[in-house]
Description:
The chain is of the alpha+beta class. The protein has a single domain, classed as CATH 3.30.1330.40. The chain has three helices and seven strands. The protein has helices spanning 5-11, 61-82, 109-124, and strands spanning 29-32, 35-38, 44-45, 48-49, 90-101, 131-137, 146-154. A hairpin with a 2-residue loop joins strand 3 (44-45) and strand 4 (48-49). Helix 2 packs across helix 3. It starts with a helix and ends with a strand. InterPro entries: Endoribo_LPSP/chorism_mut-like, RutC-like_sf. Residues 6-146 form the Endoribonuclease L-PSP/chorismate mutase-like domain. This is RidA family protein.
Amino acid sequence: MADTIESRLQAAGVTLPEAAAPAANYVPTVTYGKVLQTSGQLPMENGALAVTGKLGSEVDVETGQKAARLCAINVLAQAKSALGGDLSKIGRLLKLTVFVSSDPAFTEQHKVANGASDFLVEILGEKGRHARSAVGVPALPMNAAVEVEATFETL
């Protein structure tokens, strides 16, 4: 099989879920020219929120990384939906923003964000190398531990 995004997902044992419908008054993605922006994605798995709580007290870094990876899987699901089911239309991942629900003393947001970054580089290859922000926040929707949004260049 050719080395494609789909083959790398398969090799990683990842099946993208159906893109989640918006939970409020927004759209899941916006395309402007060759730029595709996703809305923030939560660590949903099998239709349920998989990781809740604050990093630094209720959630450890390793579990936070797993949550960030789930968010990244959901980001790719949204991108796939927006691109008519064709992930080969991704030119490159430009920017990843990772929001980490954190206790005030927690300072390892960058390590949590690696869960998303590492996964996206694994799946997208060189197209997955990106600029990034990892931001600690006091709370996220539905008590999610992590939320991730992405900006892609499309072909």
